[in-house]
User: What shape does this take?
Amino acid sequence: MAIRVLLVDDQPLLRTGFRMILEAEQDIAVVGEAGDGLQALDQVRALQPDVVLMDIRMPRMDGVEATRQIAGPGRDGPAKVLVLTTFDLDEYVVEALRAGASGFLLKDAPANELVQAIRVVAAGEALLAPSITRRLLDKYAGHLPSGDDPVPDTLHTLTEREVEVLKLVARGLSNAEIAADLFVSETTVKTHVGHVLTKLGLRDRVQAAVYAYESGLVRPGAQ
Assistant: This one.
């Protein structure tokens, strides 16, 4: 079945460009468009898309709040949010990741990257650009708790190996890189990541990375 995509951006020309790129793919169907966050919420309810391509800065309701209402805590709908940003270090991206976004993409990314990003997010494989996400968390460390608070009880549900994997996910390593670092198979890493997400009640790798920073397990700038 085709991946159902909703385009959300306040610039009609950009939406048209994205539509042309995506509709050229046999496995992707653009089911609707919205010009702001409020319209996006209505369209998500009406169209039930698999992936929402979400701009951040829009009138009436921005992409962060729209993302929170679509994919935030307590939301169990199928839609995953892929955030679009003009700058790779946009401060709002951190808030969008916290709000439940499954990843983000630069607006000037090549067409093939946009298509692949949508496929990856639809498949539940978030954290599209680990190195960029790590830079974001490091740069905006002031937005995160200091780490002086007690470790959350939920962290104690993880095994020692799962904690290791969570730390490496937070530092931007891919499954293949984690496998090489821990001298295990990539399949084993995927299994550990799945256990981490289930035990901590997290939606994807992005939320796992943010959780690791917010809990103090990983400190900004740590190697």
